[in-house]
Design a protein that fits this description.
It catalyses: 2-(N(omega)-L-arginino)succinate = fumarate + L-arginine. By secondary structure, the chain is mainly alpha-helical. The chain folds into 3 domains: 15-106, Orthogonal Bundle (Fumarase C, Chain B, domain 1), CATH 1.10.275.10; 111-148 and 165-203 and 219-353, Fumarase/aspartase (Central domain) (Fumarase C, Chain A, domain 2); 364-456, Ribonucleotide Reductase Protein R1, domain 1, CATH 1.10.40.30. The protein has helices spanning 16-22, 25-28, 32-48, 54-72, 85-97, 110-146, 166-191, 210-217, 226-231, 234-260, 288-311, 326-349, 354-362, 368-377, 382-399, 408-414, 422-426, 428-433, 443-456; strands spanning 151-156, 159-165, 193-194, 221-222, 268-269, 351-352. The longest helix has 37 residues, at 110-146. The protein binds arginine.
């Protein structure tokens, strides 16, 4: 008898290097816990449905529990010759309890088995990812709460635009992460579905109870079409897509943290614990962790593109191409979990240089809109007010001063609507405070926003 679980039909064995090319055990051993969980549910169901005898079920369950223990203690020795996690565990079971172990695979196929493992695996991991997103959101809220009154320059085109509350800027990432978190949560209803019992593709002749095995594994639903159950990998694509968007958001935040940490900006200082030095330049403190996260967004997009391309055009039902769904998923998961943990620590410990921000916002023209709004409030059409303000900005640039330094007589040369109270509205703090529109940067709005955000955590 061939050493292969499927060897009966074969006259000769493949050479080891060919086996190695086809094997997935190098990476799918990460599914060991889920594969055993699935098998326990399957054999329990086989017993309940009278397909296996109680003593057979007991023997198999005992063997599976032993394998669980060994797995926890890292005592299992996986072999490439047994191809993948499913066949490795089956072989171990038979070695452990004898030929009765061969009854475990009654009424199932590796095709529904592997899909089940992936669903079980993602269900747990997505729950972890959601919890980590929330922790990062919490850290953002804490920094934001401490900086509601910290006025900072707001940018468009990376040029100073309008003064804002620094908290308002930070909270932007809270809301992006909130949507990321929602996307992962919503994807759960498509992950939380059992493919087990679909067999190779067509279902099985054994009187199985798919709902029972689903319930034993804690799934809320079962796939309604056996071919779909073994062919679907869209729940993984969705995970990779949600992760890519999350990493896009993190990479934007990372980029800002990198810019803010430069000598040119100095808006923040990262904690030493999240920075690195240079092997040659003693003065350096590099934001390596933020740079890495910015860079790692790339690999998550690659994994998404990779799986979409694998799936494109493959006929129903299972094809070995689908074994390529795993490494990208493991890699993305590892990337996302690591990035979220680092980010949380980085945000929690960063120090905001309030003085630098204060100085920055008092040495620019980001209050120009205030001047235009002032004139518009006094009845001047906004277009005209824009023109007048532009001219005053130009005058200031020529004189090397800012709008707050421009004497009233100079201002009135452009418009007599400008009166002494214009200096009040030009103060950056006033510019922020007066933006009470819903969701605006006004202090009251930002405070409300943070209160609302906290109810979501
Ligand atoms: N290792 C395979 C995978 O990851 C398991 C399913 C194999 N099924 C098969 N019919 N060859 O996709």
């Amino acid at each position: 008898m061939s050493s292969k679980a499927w060897g009966g039909r074969f006259q000769k064995s493949a050479e080891a290097w060919v086996d190695e090319f086809g094997a997935s055990i190098g990476f799918d051993q990460q599914l060991v816990t889920e594969d055993l969980e699935g098998s326990i549910a399957h054999v329990t169901m086989l017993g309940k449905c009278g397909i296996l005898q109680a003593d057979e079920v007991d023997a198999i369950l005992k063997g599976l529990h032993t394998l669980q223990e060994k797995a926890e203690n890292q005592e299992l020795e996986f072999k490439v010759e047994h191809e993948d996690i499913h066949l490795n565990l089956e072989k171990m079971l038979i070695d452990l309890i004898g030929p009765v172990g061969g009854k475990l695979h009654t009424g199932r196929s590796r095709n529904d088995q592997v899909a089940t493992d992936m669903h079980l695996f993602l269900k747990k991991r997505v729950t972890e990812v959601i919890a980590l997103i929330k922790k990062l959101q919490q850290a953002i809220v804490e920094q934001a709460e401490a900086h509601i009154d910290t006025i900072a320059p707001g940018y468009t085109h990376l040029q100073r635009a309008q003064p804002i509350s620094f908290a308002h800027h930070l909270m932007t990432y809270f809301w992006m992460l909130e949507r990321d978190q929602q996307r992962f949560t919503e994807s759960m209803k498509r992950i939380d579905v059992s493919p087990l019992g679909a067999g190779a593709l067509a279902g099985t002749t054994f009187p199985i109870d798919r709902e029972l095995s689903a319930e034993l594994m804690g799934f809320s639903a079962v796939y309604q079409n056996s071919i779909d159950a073994v062919s679907d990998r869209d729940f993984i694509v969705e995970f990779l897509s949600n992760s890519s968007l999350l990493m896009a958001h993190l990479s934007r935040f990372a980029e800002e943290i990198i810019i803010w940490s430069t000598d040119e900006f100095k808006f923040i200082e990262l904690d030493d614990a999240f920075s690195t030095g240079s092997s040659i330049m003693p003065q350096k403190k590099n934001p390596d962790m933020a740079e890495l996260i910015r860079g790692k967004a790339g690999r998550t997009y690659g994994n998404l593109m990779g799986l979409l391309t694998v799936l494109k055009g493959i006929p129903l039902a299972y094809n070995k191409d689908m074994q390529e769904d795993k490494e990208g998923m493991f890699d993305t998961l590892h990337t996302v979990v690591g990035s979220l943990k680092i980010f949380e620590g980085m945000v929690r410990t960063m120090v905001v240089n309030e003085e630098v921000l204060h100085k920055a916002v008092h040495n620019d023209f980001s209050n120009a809109t205030e001047l235009a709004d002032y004139l518009a409030t006094k009845g001047m059409p906004f277009r005209e007010a824009h023109e007048v303000t532009g001219k005053l900005v130009f005058t200031c640039i020529q004189k090397g001063i800012y709008l707050l330094d421009l004497p009233l007589e100079e201002m009135q040369k452009e418009s007599t609507l400008l009166e002494a109270d214009v200096y009040d509205v030009l103060a950056p703090v006033a510019a922020v405070k007066r933006r009470h529109s819903l969701g605006g940067t006004g202090f009251e709005q930002v405070t409300k926003q943070i209160q609302h955000a906290k109810t979501l955590l």
